[in-house]
Amino acid sequence: MPHAPAPSLEDIQAAQVRLRGHVHRTPVLTSSALNALTGAQLHFKCENLQRSGSFKARGAHNAVLALTDAEAARGVATHSSGNHGAALALAARTRGIPAHIVVPRNAPQAKLDNIRRYGGLLHLCEPTQQAREAAVAAVITANGARLVHPYDDPVVQAGQGTCALELLQDVEDLDLLLAPLGGGGLIGGSAVAAKSVRPGIRVVGVEPEGAADAVQSVAHGVITPVMKPASVADGLLATIKPSTFELIRTRVDAVVTVPDAAILRAQRLVWEILKLVIEPSSAVPLAALLEARVEARAAQVGIILTGGNVDFSACAARPKRSAPP
Protein backbone atom coordinates (compact mmCIF):
# COMPACT_ATOMS: atom_id res chain seq x y z
CA MET A 1 0.00 0.00 0.00
CA PRO A 2 1.54 3.38 -0.98
CA HIS A 3 2.29 5.74 1.87
CA ALA A 4 0.96 9.29 2.12
CA PRO A 5 2.80 12.09 0.29
CA ALA A 6 5.65 13.74 2.17
CA PRO A 7 4.95 17.15 3.69
CA SER A 8 6.02 20.14 1.62
CA LEU A 9 7.52 23.42 2.78
CA GLU A 10 4.06 24.93 2.28
CA ASP A 11 2.59 22.30 4.64
CA ILE A 12 5.21 23.17 7.26
CA GLN A 13 4.60 26.89 6.87
CA ALA A 14 0.84 26.30 7.22
CA ALA A 15 1.54 24.28 10.36
CA GLN A 16 3.60 27.14 11.78
CA VAL A 17 0.59 29.45 11.36
CA ARG A 18 -1.81 26.85 12.82
CA LEU A 19 0.38 26.33 15.88
CA ARG A 20 0.61 29.98 16.90
CA GLY A 21 -0.69 30.36 20.44
CA HIS A 22 -0.65 26.58 20.98
CA VAL A 23 3.09 25.82 21.20
CA HIS A 24 6.09 27.86 22.31
CA ARG A 25 8.64 29.38 19.97
CA THR A 26 11.51 27.86 21.91
CA PRO A 27 14.83 29.68 22.42
CA VAL A 28 18.14 28.95 20.71
CA LEU A 29 21.11 28.83 23.10
CA THR A 30 24.87 28.78 22.52
CA SER A 31 27.85 27.78 24.67
CA SER A 32 31.48 28.78 24.22
CA ALA A 33 32.52 25.79 26.36
CA LEU A 34 30.70 23.27 24.16
CA ASN A 35 31.97 25.07 21.05
CA ALA A 36 35.52 24.55 22.33
CA LEU A 37 34.90 20.86 23.00
CA THR A 38 33.53 20.21 19.51
CA GLY A 39 35.40 22.73 17.38
CA ALA A 40 32.10 23.99 15.94
CA GLN A 41 29.66 26.82 16.57
CA LEU A 42 26.67 25.11 18.17
CA HIS A 43 23.12 26.45 18.26
CA PHE A 44 20.80 24.47 20.54
CA LYS A 45 17.07 24.57 19.74
CA CYS A 46 15.57 24.02 23.19
CA GLU A 47 12.50 21.86 22.66
CA ASN A 48 12.99 20.55 26.20
CA LEU A 49 11.31 23.86 27.12
CA GLN A 50 8.35 23.15 24.82
CA ARG A 51 4.82 22.56 26.11
CA SER A 52 4.50 18.98 27.43
CA GLY A 53 8.31 18.92 27.63
CA SER A 54 9.17 17.92 24.07
CA PHE A 55 9.00 18.77 20.36
CA LYS A 56 6.14 16.28 20.06
CA ALA A 57 3.73 19.07 21.00
CA ARG A 58 4.22 20.46 17.49
CA GLY A 59 3.12 17.41 15.50
CA ALA A 60 0.37 16.43 17.93
CA HIS A 61 -1.21 19.89 17.97
CA ASN A 62 -0.93 20.24 14.20
CA ALA A 63 -2.74 16.94 13.69
CA VAL A 64 -5.48 17.57 16.27
CA LEU A 65 -6.12 21.18 15.21
CA ALA A 66 -6.36 20.10 11.55
CA LEU A 67 -9.23 17.67 12.28
CA THR A 68 -12.76 18.69 11.40
CA ASP A 69 -15.30 18.67 14.22
CA ALA A 70 -16.76 15.45 12.82
CA GLU A 71 -13.35 13.77 12.66
CA ALA A 72 -12.49 14.84 16.21
CA ALA A 73 -15.83 13.94 17.77
CA ARG A 74 -14.87 10.46 18.98
CA GLY A 75 -11.42 11.46 20.18
CA VAL A 76 -7.92 10.49 19.16
CA ALA A 77 -5.61 7.58 19.90
CA THR A 78 -1.94 6.75 19.56
CA HIS A 79 0.88 4.58 20.81
CA SER A 80 3.93 6.25 22.28
CA SER A 81 7.07 5.81 24.34
CA GLY A 82 5.70 8.72 26.37
CA ASN A 83 6.38 12.14 24.87
CA HIS A 84 3.99 11.94 21.91
CA GLY A 85 1.33 10.53 24.21
CA ALA A 86 1.62 13.48 26.58
CA ALA A 87 1.62 15.93 23.68
CA LEU A 88 -1.47 14.33 22.14
CA ALA A 89 -3.28 14.36 25.48
CA LEU A 90 -2.53 18.07 25.80
CA ALA A 91 -3.63 18.81 22.23
CA ALA A 92 -6.84 16.82 22.71
CA ARG A 93 -7.59 18.73 25.90
CA THR A 94 -7.34 21.93 23.85
CA ARG A 95 -10.25 20.69 21.71
CA GLY A 96 -12.14 19.06 24.58
CA ILE A 97 -11.92 15.54 23.16
CA PRO A 98 -10.63 12.27 24.70
CA ALA A 99 -7.15 10.96 23.98
CA HIS A 100 -6.38 7.23 24.30
CA ILE A 101 -2.65 6.64 24.79
CA VAL A 102 -1.03 3.21 24.51
CA VAL A 103 2.33 3.15 26.30
CA PRO A 104 4.83 0.35 27.06
CA ARG A 105 4.74 -0.87 30.66
CA ASN A 106 8.40 0.03 31.13
CA ALA A 107 8.05 3.69 30.08
CA PRO A 108 9.66 6.19 32.50
CA GLN A 109 7.32 7.18 35.32
CA ALA A 110 7.76 10.86 34.49
CA LYS A 111 6.30 10.29 31.03
CA LEU A 112 3.36 8.28 32.37
CA ASP A 113 2.68 11.06 34.86
CA ASN A 114 2.71 13.64 32.07
CA ILE A 115 0.09 11.73 30.09
CA ARG A 116 -2.19 11.51 33.13
CA ARG A 117 -1.57 15.17 34.00
CA TYR A 118 -2.91 16.26 30.63
CA GLY A 119 -5.97 14.03 30.89
CA GLY A 120 -4.86 11.18 28.64
CA LEU A 121 -6.57 7.79 29.02
CA LEU A 122 -3.64 5.45 29.58
CA HIS A 123 -3.50 1.91 28.14
CA LEU A 124 -0.37 -0.09 29.07
CA CYS A 125 1.09 -2.75 26.78
CA GLU A 126 4.16 -4.94 26.46
CA PRO A 127 7.34 -3.11 25.38
CA THR A 128 7.46 -4.16 21.72
CA GLN A 129 6.50 -2.36 18.52
CA GLN A 130 4.08 -5.15 17.63
CA ALA A 131 2.34 -4.94 21.01
CA ARG A 132 2.00 -1.17 20.73
CA GLU A 133 0.43 -1.33 17.29
CA ALA A 134 -1.92 -4.17 18.24
CA ALA A 135 -3.04 -2.39 21.40
CA VAL A 136 -3.81 0.91 19.67
CA ALA A 137 -5.73 -0.95 16.94
CA ALA A 138 -7.85 -2.58 19.65
CA VAL A 139 -8.48 0.78 21.32
CA ILE A 140 -9.57 2.33 18.02
CA THR A 141 -11.91 -0.58 17.30
CA ALA A 142 -13.47 -0.26 20.76
CA ASN A 143 -13.82 3.54 20.84
CA GLY A 144 -13.86 4.74 17.24
CA ALA A 145 -11.04 7.18 18.01
CA ARG A 146 -8.95 8.75 15.26
CA LEU A 147 -5.34 7.51 15.00
CA VAL A 148 -2.68 10.21 15.31
CA HIS A 149 0.47 8.21 14.64
CA PRO A 150 3.59 9.48 16.44
CA TYR A 151 5.54 9.80 13.18
CA ASP A 152 3.98 7.91 10.24
CA ASP A 153 1.70 10.82 9.33
CA PRO A 154 2.53 13.75 7.02
CA VAL A 155 0.50 16.17 9.15
CA VAL A 156 2.51 15.18 12.23
CA GLN A 157 5.74 15.38 10.22
CA ALA A 158 4.81 18.88 9.04
CA GLY A 159 4.27 19.94 12.64
CA GLN A 160 7.66 18.57 13.64
CA GLY A 161 9.24 20.38 10.69
CA THR A 162 8.28 23.73 12.23
CA CYS A 163 11.07 23.18 14.76
CA ALA A 164 13.76 23.31 12.06
CA LEU A 165 11.94 26.12 10.26
CA GLU A 166 12.08 28.27 13.39
CA LEU A 167 15.73 27.41 13.97
CA LEU A 168 16.68 28.51 10.45
CA GLN A 169 14.63 31.68 10.82
CA ASP A 170 16.66 32.48 13.94
CA VAL A 171 20.07 31.27 12.65
CA GLU A 172 20.12 31.72 8.89
CA ASP A 173 23.68 30.59 8.15
CA LEU A 174 23.59 27.03 9.48
CA ASP A 175 25.87 24.59 7.66
CA LEU A 176 24.67 21.46 9.44
CA LEU A 177 21.51 20.34 11.24
CA LEU A 178 21.63 17.42 13.68
CA ALA A 179 18.56 15.75 15.17
CA PRO A 180 17.80 12.55 17.06
CA LEU A 181 16.27 9.77 14.99
CA GLY A 182 13.70 7.35 16.39
CA GLY A 183 10.67 6.78 14.19
CA GLY A 184 11.89 9.45 11.80
CA GLY A 185 9.12 12.07 11.96
CA LEU A 186 11.34 14.82 13.34
CA ILE A 187 14.32 14.22 11.07
CA GLY A 188 12.00 13.85 8.08
CA GLY A 189 10.03 17.04 8.67
CA SER A 190 13.19 18.90 9.63
CA ALA A 191 14.98 17.80 6.46
CA VAL A 192 12.13 19.03 4.28
CA ALA A 193 12.13 22.41 6.03
CA ALA A 194 15.91 22.79 6.12
CA LYS A 195 16.61 21.73 2.53
CA SER A 196 13.79 23.93 1.23
CA VAL A 197 14.97 27.05 3.07
CA ARG A 198 18.73 26.45 2.77
CA PRO A 199 19.47 23.92 -0.02
CA GLY A 200 23.18 23.59 0.80
CA ILE A 201 22.68 22.58 4.43
CA ARG A 202 23.66 19.07 5.55
CA VAL A 203 21.08 17.17 7.60
CA VAL A 204 22.24 14.27 9.76
CA GLY A 205 20.15 11.95 11.91
CA VAL A 206 21.63 10.33 15.00
CA GLU A 207 20.39 7.15 16.65
CA PRO A 208 21.64 4.90 19.47
CA GLU A 209 23.83 1.95 18.54
CA GLY A 210 21.31 -0.36 20.21
CA ALA A 211 18.44 0.87 18.03
CA ALA A 212 20.14 1.41 14.69
CA ASP A 213 17.32 0.42 12.34
CA ALA A 214 17.69 3.56 10.17
CA VAL A 215 21.40 2.96 9.59
CA GLN A 216 20.71 -0.67 8.68
CA SER A 217 17.76 0.26 6.48
CA VAL A 218 19.75 2.84 4.53
CA ALA A 219 22.61 0.36 4.08
CA HIS A 220 20.30 -2.43 2.86
CA GLY A 221 17.93 -0.26 0.85
CA VAL A 222 14.92 -1.70 2.66
CA ILE A 223 13.45 -1.22 6.13
CA THR A 224 15.45 -3.47 8.46
CA PRO A 225 14.09 -3.48 12.03
CA VAL A 226 16.20 -4.18 15.08
CA MET A 227 14.56 -7.15 16.73
CA LYS A 228 15.20 -6.10 20.33
CA PRO A 229 16.13 -2.41 20.38
CA ALA A 230 17.68 -1.27 23.64
CA SER A 231 19.18 2.02 24.74
CA VAL A 232 19.21 4.51 27.56
CA ALA A 233 17.59 6.82 24.97
CA ASP A 234 14.13 5.31 25.46
CA GLY A 235 12.47 7.81 23.12
CA LEU A 236 14.44 6.51 20.11
CA LEU A 237 13.49 2.83 20.13
CA ALA A 238 10.71 3.04 17.51
CA THR A 239 11.08 1.47 14.08
CA ILE A 240 10.95 3.71 11.01
CA LYS A 241 8.01 3.38 8.63
CA PRO A 242 7.86 3.57 4.81
CA SER A 243 6.98 7.28 4.85
CA THR A 244 9.85 8.22 7.13
CA PHE A 245 12.27 5.85 5.41
CA GLU A 246 11.56 7.63 2.12
CA LEU A 247 12.25 11.00 3.72
CA ILE A 248 15.48 9.71 5.28
CA ARG A 249 16.58 8.10 2.02
CA THR A 250 15.90 11.17 -0.14
CA ARG A 251 16.34 14.18 2.17
CA VAL A 252 18.81 13.21 4.92
CA ASP A 253 22.52 13.32 4.09
CA ALA A 254 23.66 10.73 6.64
CA VAL A 255 22.60 8.70 9.64
CA VAL A 256 25.15 7.89 12.35
CA THR A 257 25.03 6.03 15.64
CA VAL A 258 26.44 6.62 19.13
CA PRO A 259 26.90 4.32 22.15
CA ASP A 260 24.96 4.77 25.37
CA ALA A 261 28.06 5.84 27.30
CA ALA A 262 28.54 8.78 24.92
CA ILE A 263 24.85 9.68 25.18
CA LEU A 264 25.06 9.87 28.97
CA ARG A 265 28.24 11.93 28.80
CA ALA A 266 26.60 14.41 26.43
CA GLN A 267 23.49 14.59 28.61
CA ARG A 268 25.59 15.38 31.65
CA LEU A 269 27.51 18.10 29.78
CA VAL A 270 24.27 19.80 28.77
CA TRP A 271 23.01 19.61 32.35
CA GLU A 272 26.28 20.99 33.75
CA ILE A 273 27.19 23.58 31.11
CA LEU A 274 23.92 24.77 29.59
CA LYS A 275 22.03 24.20 32.86
CA LEU A 276 19.24 22.53 30.89
CA VAL A 277 17.41 19.38 31.92
CA ILE A 278 17.30 17.08 28.89
CA GLU A 279 16.49 13.40 28.57
CA PRO A 280 19.03 10.99 27.01
CA SER A 281 17.28 10.99 23.62
CA SER A 282 18.01 14.72 23.34
CA ALA A 283 21.73 14.19 23.86
CA VAL A 284 22.49 11.95 20.88
CA PRO A 285 23.40 14.77 18.42
CA LEU A 286 25.92 16.30 20.81
CA ALA A 287 27.25 12.80 21.51
CA ALA A 288 27.83 12.34 17.77
CA LEU A 289 29.96 15.48 17.68
CA LEU A 290 31.91 14.56 20.81
CA GLU A 291 32.58 11.08 19.36
CA ALA A 292 33.61 12.57 15.98
CA ARG A 293 30.88 10.61 14.19
CA VAL A 294 30.06 13.76 12.17
CA GLU A 295 32.55 16.17 10.57
CA ALA A 296 31.67 19.63 11.86
CA ARG A 297 34.93 21.51 12.45
CA ALA A 298 34.37 25.28 12.20
CA ALA A 299 30.78 24.71 11.01
CA GLN A 300 27.64 26.49 12.15
CA VAL A 301 25.65 23.60 13.63
CA GLY A 302 22.02 23.45 14.67
CA ILE A 303 21.14 20.84 17.31
CA ILE A 304 17.57 20.01 18.30
CA LEU A 305 17.29 19.23 22.02
CA THR A 306 14.13 17.20 21.66
CA GLY A 307 12.82 16.83 25.20
CA GLY A 308 13.34 17.16 28.93
CA ASN A 309 11.01 14.61 30.50
CA VAL A 310 13.40 12.99 32.95
CA ASP A 311 12.49 10.53 35.68
CA PHE A 312 13.92 12.41 38.65
CA SER A 313 13.06 9.57 41.04
CA ALA A 314 15.73 7.50 39.27
CA CYS A 315 18.23 10.32 39.71
CA ALA A 316 17.40 10.61 43.40
CA ALA A 317 17.96 6.88 43.86
CA ARG A 318 21.63 7.12 42.91
CA PRO A 319 24.15 6.73 45.77
CA LYS A 320 25.13 10.02 47.38
CA ARG A 321 28.74 11.15 47.29
CA SER A 322 30.54 11.74 50.52
CA ALA A 323 31.69 15.27 51.28
CA PRO A 324 35.46 15.81 51.09
CA PRO A 325 37.23 15.84 54.47
Characterize the structure shown.
- The strands form 2 sheets. The chain has a 6-stranded mixed sheet, with helices on both faces. A 4-stranded parallel sheet has the order 5-4-3-6, with helices on both faces.
- It contains 14 helices and 10 strands.
- Helices cover about 45% and strands about 15% of the residues.
- Helix 5 (about 85-95) links the parallel strand 3 (about 75-80) and strand 4 (about 100-105).
- It has 2 domains: about 10-55 and about 155-315, Rossmann fold (3-Layer(aba) Sandwich); about 55-145, Rossmann fold (3-Layer(aba) Sandwich), CATH 3.40.50.
- It is of the alpha/beta class and about 325 residues long.
Q: What count of helical segments does DSSP give?
A: 14
In CATH's first tier, which class of the largest domain applies? Alpha Beta
Could you name the CATH topology of the largest domain? Rossmann fold
Approximate helicity band: 40-55%
The major β-sheet equals: 6 strands, mixed
Give the helices and strands as they follow along the chain.
Answer: HEHEHHEHEHEHEHEHEHHEHHEH
Give the overall silhouette.
globular
Tell me the radius of gyration: 19 Å
What are the low-pLDDT stretches, counting only 5+ consecutive residues below 50? 316-325
Average predicted confidence as pLDDT? 94
As for the number of domains, it is 2
Distance between the termini: 68 Å
Strands, count: 10
Category by helix and strand content: alpha/beta
Q: What percentage of the residues does DSSP assign to strands (E)?
A: 5-15%
Please give the order of strands in the largest beta sheet: 1-2-10-7-8-9
CATH architecture of the largest domain: 3-Layer(aba) Sandwich
